[in-house]
Structures are given as C-alpha cells and as structure tokens.
Amino acid sequence: xxxxxxxxxxxxxxxxxxxxxxxxxxxxxxxxxxxxxxxxxxxxxxxxxxxxxxxxxxxxxxxxxxxxxxxxxxxxxxxxxxxxxxxxxxxxxxxxxxxxxxxxxxxxxxxxxxxxxxxxxxxxxxxxxxxxxxxxxxxxxxxxxxxxxxxxxxxxxxxxxxxxxxxxxxxxxxxxxxxxxxxxxxxxxxxxxxxxxxxxxxxxxxxxxxxxxxxxxxxxxxxxxxxxxxxxxxxxxxxxxxxxxxxxxxxxxxx
Length: 255
Known about the structure:
Blueprint lengths: L2 E5 L7 H9 L3 E4 L4 H10 L4 E5 L4 H12 L9 E4 L3 H10 L4 E3 L4 H11 L11 H6 L3 H4 L7 E5 L17 E3 L5 E6 L2 H6 L1 H7 L4 E7 L9 H9 L3 E8 L4 E8 L3
Parallel strand pairs: 1-2, 1-3, 3-4, 4-5, 6-7, 6-8, 8-9
Antiparallel strand pairs: 9-11, 10-11
C-alpha cells in the first residue's frame, strides 16, 4: 500500500484531503504540528508521495517543499500541491515547476500517477530561503509592491533608507493603508499600542519591526509573539529587514 504524507496547517480542515486519500486506498500519515516537526516526521518515515495543501499558509507549504528538495534523503519523493489561490500557486510553480498541482477532486488520480513515475524523476532543486532572501531588498521582503500605499508608525530617523531599493511610486503615509509597518522600540511602547494595533490588523497587513538584540528592553521575538497572541494576533512570516531590524507579519486569529 502506498503511503501519502499530508501537510496541512489546520488540523480541523485536514479531514477532506485525508479521506480522499484513504478512500483511494492509500495509507495516510498526518501530523498536526509545525514545519520542523513535520519535516522530522518525513525524514523518519519516507512516504511515497507528499501532498501539501495550499489553502492554509501556502508560504509554509512552499518552504517545506523546498526543504524537501534541498535534502538528499527526501529529494526524490514526489510532491503534490493541492488547491490554493491561483496567484500563489503560480509563484510556487516558478520555484518548483516539476512538482504536481491539482484541486482536491484530482488528488487520487494525481497520486497514482506520481507513484508509477517516481523512479523516473530528476527533481529540480530550488534555492533555499536564505539564498533567495539575499537577493531581495528589505522592501521586497516586506511585500512592498510598486504603487503601493504603506502606513508607517513610529519609524526610526533613517527610514525609509533601511528598506533598500523601493519599487516605483510607493507612497508612505501615516493614515490607513493595505500594508502597515509598525516600528516598536521597547516593550512599553508595544503594550501601550497593542489594542489599537489589533484593530488596525483587521484592515491591513501588519508588520511589527523591532531592533535586533533589544533584549535589554525585554523585547524579543518570543515576547513579541506571545504578547500579540494575547489580543488574538498570530504571526505567519518573519524576516531580517537589515542588520539592525527584524520583522514579523501578523494577522488576526481565525475563530
């Protein structure tokens, strides 16, 4: 019996994909955990196919797939991406053009094809995340696109120079925008504005940026994450902005 490892970041929503695979006669492995634990489980027991659901946290699924391709033990395990928003699927295809892609109603047939053709594979090995990030400006890492309007809260004096090359026609504002950069200088400032930021996160993509090595102010990555969770905000992306600043992207936790 072929073994399918399912990667899905929301256990409550994983059952449809699990049942499709079991209904087609496959043995299913699934772990409701973070990316590191999922990758370790895959290394411990190699599946015949890895099915990655893109309906939740597609960037996490993309990075798991790239890690698999950059690891000798797992490089040749077939990868199947399921669902996802078209634009995000297209971006993943550019990195992993030889992976398979389908909607959930095509999963069973796609897995059967992959099992049959597994020995014929010569997989593409895309650059790992650190290699890709080296090629991006800070503005690109933060998702600032051409002609975007970006709200900036409590910026440092050298802003926007710390963003590096900024796409054309970007407007920085103190008002509402689709993307918000909130520079937090100490824990007191974080706590003072927490409720206001929760409201802002309802209508914008909220990046919280803090100085590296700012533990003297009791402001660290873990403190930031735990504090934001107290008001229903969860992180789903982190990046190094420059030599001095780190950033974490937050969204409101779904009920």
